[in-house]
Fold each of these.
Amino acid sequence: MKCLINKYISVDTLSYKTISANKATVDKQWLLVDAEGETLGRLASKVALLLRGKRKPNFTPHVDCGDNVVIINAEKINLTGKKWDSKTYVRHTGYPGGQRFTTANEMLAKDPARIVEKSIKGMLPKNKLGAELFRNLKVYAGTAHNQEAQKPTAINLNDFK
């Protein structure tokens, strides 16, 4: 018995093409996140994933395919343990001996949105793409925000794992 093989069977190669997103094909949305009662690190890691777009099926590592995120109630975040007094933020003026330290309590009193911004920025890539992704983030201390015209969709971060 001979087995005959049809050598004229071809595979449709166009159906196996890998799809790569670019600026023209990316679907960006506006999302509204309420930070009231959220723990800072958990909030920041979930928002960083939304900004990066890693939850989308067409995620491409070198393209900004994430969403625009608006965070409200930044002054109502939580820090666990004694971090309000022991967590320090370090900056440098650029002059000799110019190292300056600020605690989380002092930064909350001065600008509550900056605590959230610094924690999210630390979770984004440290390159041009990370700077571009950070521009898609808007953080507000209170409930009022300037993005009503974009009609952001309110999401609950607890729905993500």
Amino acid sequence: MLKRAFFIILFLLLCRAGIVNASLVEVETSFLKGDYEKVKAIADADMADATIDKANLAKIKYFLALSHLWLKEYSDAKKVLEALHEEDLDKNFRDKVSLGIIDACYLNDEYETALDTAQRFIKENASSDYLSLVYLKLARINLKLAQWAEAEVYLKKVINDFPQSMDVYIAKQLLEENRYFAVQVGSFALSSRAEQLAQELKEKGEYAYVVEITDQENKKYYRVRVGKLSSLSEAKHLKSKLSELGYPTSIYP
């Protein structure tokens, strides 16, 4: 009887592990499909289940936080990531969580907090595999704060210290950007479409122009931008105005 009971318990434990793994796979699959609401629903159910393996649950929480980011629920993402960061994680996973916190702060316009978090990451993780990416994030944060000189230092560091990094191309592009804020309202493969949109905006009294860029595969794109502004607050005001007119907007740099 005891032997039979042992195998029954073992069977149930193995089934439970299978359910947990299946849940994580379902979360990952839903995330990759862009079904972020489903990720949230699964994660909420799993977090209420005290029997779920902690390692799998940590990964589920991470996908939950990423889903919040994609849904522009930045404060919710930050809350999940900060709590996750306090858990017993392996170094690589903890680094990813830290990067998520930086992104959540940055996307929520909490630039000073993002800056402090990124600088602390550099100080505490000198051997991290993500250093070039964090330096690039520091550059982006400084650009938003109109701290052009500091941003340039970080961009050059990415280029000089991590020449094989995937971040080098973006760093070079940002280094070439003019030192003012603009609102981008479109990016096209055809220059004619970009010029048409720029002309439409000009007829509405906006200072619109086309910026030509070349990507890593040597393909050209034509970006339509509006304004050359000295402060982020002016750019945000213009962004809001153009959004109300129905244009998809983002602030550069």
Amino acid sequence: MDFKHTSVMLGEVVSALNVKPNGIYLDCTLGGAGHALAIGRRLTSGGLLIGIDRDEDAIVAARERLAGLACAVKTVRANFSELDKILDDFSVDKIDGAVFDLGVSSHQIDTAERGFSYMKDSPLDMRMDRRQSLTARDVINFCDEDRLTKIFRDYGEERFAKRAAAAICRARKISPIETTGELVRLIEQTVPRTKNGGHPAKRIPGKSHRS
């Protein structure tokens, strides 16, 4: 699988971990497995690498990329909030290090049908874990105006959250908002660009729906 993602501060992160050859390490947001691979290459057969991600595409790609490492490798499709249970399942009571690279991966943004990109017209989705039923379409079309305002303000840090929420609620009374393109056009007409904030659609609902 062509899962492209550039790992953030790869050298600095691995150096800071000071990997022990027989240690136990976690990549809690596995993604393209860049951090995990760099850690795994420093582990011997006595080491253990555990990778966690909600995205099935990431898990499949990571298993391919991490194959052949000398250490034991465990990949789990789950949310890192389930970390305690995952460690219990593997009878691990102590780890030597962990990595959390939070955010959306390049693969998710570049894959149009995932609905993460404001630059590509596709169905509103934005689910990191596609086993979940709730989509960005549901949020945009069924949350009330106060809830949308709170989402945009608290998670997107959007100054014009109330204005955007009101515009969405007016538009969906005419017809449901189905695609990223429809939402982007609506936001462009409603929310002004800020000097340093770039395209306003980056903030709505970019940080609001990462289920």
Amino acid sequence: MTFADEAKKAVTPRAALPVIGVLALQLLFIASYIGVLHAPKATA
């Protein structure tokens, strides 16, 4: 049995969905910080 076969058997959609959701949330946080801080300017 290959590693890919074992991984497919071990990872269920019910377990993978929260992991994918957390990764998507982290990517949104990263994108928001990049969007806000891509060209900072001094306000004073």
